[in-house]
Specification:
Layout lengths: L3 E7 L5 H18 L2 E4 L2 H6 L7 E6 L14 H12 L3 E6 L20 H6 L2 E5 L3 E7 L13 E6 L2 E4 L6 E6 L14 E9 L2 E6 L11 H14 L11 H4 L11
Parallel strand pairs: 1-2, 1-3, 3-4, 4-11
Antiparallel strand pairs: 5-8, 6-7, 6-9, 9-10, 10-11
Length: 257
């Protein structure tokens, strides 16, 4: 039987349709690549009432831009998720999954003390601007499923800006910033997609996934499917630390000067 992945979506009410659409797109990938997707509520997660899971999808949208309230993962839910991953379950975290549990402190600075969620995930999002064209550089195209992606390409996306990176992560995609318009992006290039371990569990994160048109494209399909198959241990990939080689200034300062 195909492995089961629990889907957990977060965002303000205005993003409910987007989250449901993304869940459907991922379920479609599952039909093609051999995994099942089942929606998980926060009470189910808190209770650990989800049965055998190969892993979890965690998707967030509209958190940093929203002026309305939204319900983050509770401390209990995060502990259950962290424990399951440490024991060997996997997690595919997308877009503002990196903004669910902020570390606190100065918004435009890296923090020495980071939330337990950020420590597990490997990075933290703290803002975005309206969708615009941006350029991605592939730091590693050897990850199964992504070998056919070009070394560099442009996409229309609501680009996140991220910080508090784990230097031991393995970076797959780099957000190029030299020509990306907007004050929020006037900084050195930084990781946008990466792999890492949390205990025995595998974690794949990508900042892509807000613009729904992107879910019908080749890049996001290969990115999410490739990351999911690695998380489920159907494939293997290089997970050696490369952040200091491919984005050396990303952990020195978010905005130099």
């Amino acid at each position: 039987m195909d492995p089961k992945m629990g889907f957990i979506g977060f965002g303000p009410a205005s993003e409910a349709q987007r989250i449901a659409t993304v869940r459907g797109k991922i379920a479609g990938f599952g039909e093609r690549y051999g995994f099942r997707v089942e929606e998980l509520s926060q009470p189910e997660l808190e209770a650990g009432d989800f049965g055998p899971m190969g892993g979890f999808f965690v998707y967030g949208a509209g958190l940093s831009a929203s002026t309305s309230s939204w319900s983050p993962l509770s401390d209990r839910a995060m502990k259950v998720l962290s424990k399951a991953i440490k024991k060997g379950a996997g997690m595919v975290a997308l877009h503002e999954a990196a903004g669910i549990a902020p570390s606190g402190g100065a918004r435009l600075r890296n923090q020495a003390k980071r939330s337990s969620w950020v420590q597990m995930l490997g990075g933290e999002s703290f803002g975005s601007l309206a969708a615009r064209t941006g350029r991605i550089r592939m730091a590693d195209r050897s990850v199964p499923g992504m070998t056919q992606l070009r070394s560099g390409f442009e996409l229309e996306e609501r680009w996140l800006t991220l910080k508090n990176f784990d230097p031991e992560m393995h970076v797959i995609m780099v957000q190029e910033t030299a020509e990306l318009e907007g004050d929020l992006y006037q900084r050195p290039p930084y990781p946008l997609t990466w792999l890492r371990y949390h205990g025995k569990g595998r974690i794949f994160y990508s900042g892509l996934g807000y613009e729904l048109d992107g879910w019908d494209g080749d890049v996001l399909r290969r990115c999410v499917a490739g990351g999911t198959l690695w998380v489920l241990r159907d494939t293997e990939a290089d997970v050696s630390a490369n952040l200091m080689r491919v984005t050396p200034r990303a952990i020195q300062a978010v905005y130099p000067g």
